[in-house]
Amino acid sequence: MVGAKKEEVEYHGKKDASEAKTRGGWLRTGDMCHRDADGWLYFDFRKGGGLRRHGDFILPEYVEKALADLPEVNDVCVYGIPADTGAPGESDIVAAIVPANGNEAIDAKKIYALLGKALEKNSIPSYLQIVSEIPKTASEKNLDRLLREEFRPNAPNVISLG
């Protein structure tokens, strides 16, 4: 449009990040997609959304899917915390889960065994964080930062799978 004002994306106080996000006039979301033989586009994952664990990149969405498929789990949010090893950039994986039917007595050994069939060993969470609900935004996106703030490895609602 002639004379239209250019819309800008700007991160508060992060000019360099803002410029990188919109370089070349394109909004770079980091969404990774693929096109099938019929020309349909499919969303795969968001670039940079992975967690690094023992040098591997783990996509939380895949771990969430494996847990969500279990009848014991009503809702799930997977996120990373700094690794116990202290290795820079490495994460331990936490799966915050809402037990099905309000049952707080989770059989962690059973869940670990079931995840072992669905995921590579490195993708199995280090911890289960049992919660009554997963906090969400108005658009139903998981608010993992709130779960992360509440996480303590020795809390009564946390089970170590490691």
Would you summarize the structure shown here?
This protein is of the alpha+beta class. It has helices spanning 15-21, 60-68, 108-118, 144-150, and strands spanning 31-35, 41-46, 51-53, 56-58, 73-82, 91-99, 127-130, 158-160.
Description:
- This protein has two domains: 15-45, no CATH class; 51-160, ANL, C-terminal domain (GMP Synthetase, Chain A, domain 3).
- It is 21% helix and 27% strand.
- The protein contains four helices and eight strands.
- It has helices at residues 15-21, 60-68, 108-118, 144-150; strands at residues 31-35, 41-46, 51-53, 56-58, 73-82, 91-99, 127-130, 158-160.
- A hairpin with a 2-residue loop joins β3 and β4.
Low-confidence stretches: 1-5
Kindly provide the name of the CATH class of the largest domain: Alpha Beta
Compute the number of helices. Answer: 4
Structural class: alpha+beta
Q: What percent of residues are in strands?
A: 25-35%
Question: How many E-type strands?
Answer: 8
Instruction: Could you tell me the CATH topology label of the largest domain.
Output: GMP Synthetase, Chain A, domain 3
Provide the residue-averaged pLDDT.
85
Radius of gyration over all CA atoms, rounded: 19 Å
Specify the helix fraction band: 10-25%
Query: At CATH's second level, what is the architecture of the largest domain?
Result: 2-Layer Sandwich
Number of domains: 2
CATH H-level superfamily of the largest domain: ANL, C-terminal domain
Largest sheet: 4 strands, mixed
Quaternary structure type: single chain
Query: In sequence order, what are the helices and strands, one letter per element?
Result: HEEEEHEEHEHE
Distance between the termini: 58 Å
Shape label: globular
